């Protein structure tokens, strides 16, 4: 008689992953501010769960670069500098250029379907611009670029991009506005769609890099302006 085989019960999704998703969302939407400490015990109490899965979730987000851990101090939301912004957007450009190359060399039907999906997202941007809803606009902006990468069906590329997109949202969420030329945003994204459907690879590659370079400039300027406003603000007793 063969020995007993014991199966380990598993959930459809690991509890720590669910917790990590919730915390990640709160970091991205600015509920947890850059530099803010996330206390393991407090999170566990709020979720009415043991501290083990929370600890695993925080470790996961630490590995993603959204949290930083300091010995004897605790876990904190990452604070991104202008150098970090440049790195994030340069990395995004590299992945998006790779995604675009995959799409233009792939099936025409997939390329056209992707272009239609991207155009639909572009159409959703103007109402957010009209309302000056910059966080909503940032969500649509990143949805556009995430959809471009996802269309390749390359899971590893999408996984890498998800972390970069989350870091980009952290940058945007904590600025009053990350868009110095919001009126041009619709046109810029539609241009990328048109280039994706065109036959000029060099123009598409250049367009993607220029789009990211503009974002680096605008975000860096916004961070500088916000820092200056903070420095000029009166000190309250």
TrEMBL record:
CDD domains: WHTH_GntR (cd07377). It comes from the Bacteria. It holds the Pfam family GntR. Keywords: DNA-binding, Transcription, Transcription regulation. SMART domains: FCD (SM00895), HTH_GNTR (SM00345). This is GntR family transcriptional regulator. It comes from Rhodococcus sovatensis. Residues 13-80 form the HTH gntR-type domain. InterPro entries: GntR_C (IPR011711), TF_FadR/GntR_C (IPR008920), Tscrpt_reg_HTH_GntR (IPR000524), WH-like_DNA-bd_sf (IPR036388), WH_DNA-bd_sf (IPR036390).
């Amino acid at each position: 008689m063969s020995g007993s085989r014991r199966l380990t019960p598993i959930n459809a999704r690991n509890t720590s992953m669910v917790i990590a998703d919730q915390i990640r969302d709160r970091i991205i939407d600015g509920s947890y501010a850059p530099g803010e400490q996330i206390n393991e015990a407090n999170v566990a109490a709020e979720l009415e769960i043991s501290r083990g899965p929370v600890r695993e979730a925080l470790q996961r987000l630490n590995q993603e670069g959204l949290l930083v851990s300091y010995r004897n101090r605790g876990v904190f939301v990452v604070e991104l500098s202008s150098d970090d912004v440049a790195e994030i957007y340069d990395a995004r450009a590299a992945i998006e250029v790779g995604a675009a190359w995959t799409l233009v060399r792939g099936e025409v039907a997939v390329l056209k379907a992707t272009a239609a999906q991207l155009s639909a997202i572009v159409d959703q941007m103007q109402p957010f611009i009209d309302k000056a809803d910059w966080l909503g606009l940032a969500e649509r902006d990143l949805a556009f670029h995430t959809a471009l990468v996802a269309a390749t069906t390359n899971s590893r590329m999408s996984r890498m991009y998800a972390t970069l997109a989350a870091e980009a949202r952290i940058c945007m969420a904590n600025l009053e506005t990350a868009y110095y030329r919001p009126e041009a945003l619709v046109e810029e994204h539609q241009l990328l769609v048109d280039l994706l459907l065109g036959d000029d690879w060099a123009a598409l590659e250049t367009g993607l890099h220029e789009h990211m370079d503009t974002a680096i400039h605008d975000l860096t300027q916004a961070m500088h302006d916000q820092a200056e406003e903070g420095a000029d603000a009166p000190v309250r007793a």
